[in-house]
Design a protein that fits this description.
By secondary structure, the chain is mostly helical. Helix content is 47%, strand content 0%. It is built from 14 helices and no strands. The protein is elongated.
């Protein structure tokens, strides 16, 4: 057990809850100050670092040996990115350092989980834009609520018209006539969809994403996916370990189910072993 300024994860959240702080899972100066105060009042060295002694005294009912240590926080410059060459496109590897810094990819577990999900969702980092080129039969199967009766016939094989129909008046989009459905259709390695999500992501990049949504696919496919992980608090799940159950838990948050779990698991093992 070793938690200090810069650590993240579920153990940090538990520590913060114990100290009466907002449990955001990020050990910063406020948490450090609280730890020092607690240590001083409990006869311990007030160094702001939570080792075995501090943790055991703070959580006497939770034996240290039974707990899993939080992953060590490292700077993205320490990632063994060269090991990924030949397994992930060079263009994607080049995006990792900046993306990691901006969206809290602070250890190899997070990076391996993240890349395995991105790789599967995008067909090995190839698909960066949602394919909506459905037949009438496909529309009735995938979007039955939007195409009652024979309505699908007039939308068949017309991706723009389909997007404007199925994404109308939700996710921050205007009505079907507004064209927002097509403008803000799914893009990036984990498809960023809807005007509201584009607007939220826009705050983290220098370009005007609302005015130029195509940049999500062309310039920010990895960053938009990392924004999804960060904003939906998936890193805490990633930090739980490298076994299949964790990959399944992450997959459920990304996919809503376990579609493609074997491929995701295969890629996670591949990337994690390369990065270790």
């Amino acid at each position: 057990m070793l938690l200090k300024n810069g650590s993240t994860g579920e153990d940090v959240k538990k520590l913060q809850e114990k100290l009466g702080l907002a449990a955001d899972g990020a050990f910063g100066p406020v948490t450090e100050a609280k730890v020092k105060a607690w240590q001083a009042s409990n006869g311990l060295t007030a160094d702001g670092v939570v080792g075995d002694g501090t943790w055991t005294k703070m959580f006497s009912s939770a034996p240290v040996a039974a707990r899993v240590a939080a992953p060590v926080v490292i700077h993205p410059s320490a990632f063994k990115l060269e090991a990924l060459r030949g397994h992930i496109p060079d263009a994607v590897i080049a995006q990792i350092p900046d993306t990691a810094v901006k969206f809290n990819i602070t250890n190899t577990l997070r990076l391996a989980h993240f890349l395995s999900q991105c790789g599967h969702e995008s067909g090995n980092f190839k698909a960066v834009s949602e394919n909506l080129n459905y037949t009438a039969a496909g529309l009735k199967k995938i979007f039955p609520r939007y195409f009652p009766g024979n309505l699908s016939e007039s939308y068949s094989r017309n991706p723009e018209k389909i997007a404007n129909k199925v994404y109308a008046s939700r996710m921050g989009n205007g009505d079907e006539a507004s064209g927002d459905g097509w403008k803000y259709k799914g893009a990036g390695f984990i498809q960023l969809t809807g005007k509201a999500n584009h607007q939220a992501f826009d705050k983290f990049v220098e370009d005007d994403i609302l005015a130029n949504p195509s940049l999500v696919a062309t310039k920010y496919p990895l960053a938009s996916a990392a924004w999804f992980f960060d904003s939906n608090k998936l890193w805490g799940i990633c930090d739980k370990g490298a076994d299949k159950s964790v990959v399944q838990a992450v997959t459920k948050r990304v996919n809503g189910g376990l579609i493609g779990i074997e491929d995701r698991w295969k890629h996670f093992q591949e990337y994690y072993n390369l990065l270790k």
